[in-house]
Amino acid sequence: MKKTLLFVLLWTISITKLSASEPDTLKAYYDKIDKSFHYESGKITLTEGNGVLNVPKGFKFLNAEQTQNVLTNLWGNPEDKSILGSLVPDGKGVTHADSWMFVISYQGDGYVKDDDADDIDYDDLLKTMKEDVAAANAERKTAGYPEVQLIGWASKPFYDNNLKVLHWAKELQFGADKNHTLNYDLRVLGRKGMYNISAVAGVDQLEEVKASIPGIIKSVEFNDGHKYLDFDADTDTVAAWTIGGLVAGKVLAKVGFFAVLAKFGKFIVIGIIAAFAAIKKFLFGEKDQIVTKPAEETALLEENNSTEE
Model pTM greater than 0.85? Predict the structure, then answer.
């Protein structure tokens, strides 16, 4: 058995015994979880899209597998295999109450024309988006996930024509949670597709997220020959949507109603308990597991821990 698996078992048994009156001890255990992740810095070659990520000052990078682990097992989101990695602010571990991250993915569906960027009525577009989000709630509820309400713009859409980057922020409410979620989205446009960069944070962290946008915008870039200005009308595919479609989320149809990410603090502890249940069965063959998350999700957390031998 791998040493880290035993380590996880030991601190998982202890953490379930902690009470709210022991915040310092609880923080220490959360710190141990966070230290099990391997963060990177410098220049990262992205596995899709012919681009690179230059990790900006003030951030650290988590690869695809570890990011999925955080989003699914710790923060309670559905699995999304399109994720390439994430940027986590320095000094903030993924288990901390005020943690947040930028999630990175790539969509190679063609060159997005930006002709409509200056003509969009974003207030009118918001009404349509609210209707679309509400219509998807029945499916979310059936799948066991909380309903979503789109409250409004946390930051109105803005298209930087020079950098070919679109960014905007939505304020969302999941279920009856009074702590609203912030989804700050960026789209870095390229010759054959785009990089999606989405901040998963609380609305109270809007100013902190916005302050980091200038660095984030310039952190992801396409390699020569794959940049937006390298588009060849004779050979390249043009996407079926323009700037307005990106903001409205029509481009995310293949991801569907799960395209909205959130951070639920309660899943930090639930994910740990679920992982303990899987480890306990592995070690002792017990059948009385604590089932709080699907088996495939707990396996992700165990797999992540196994890489830190």
Answer: no
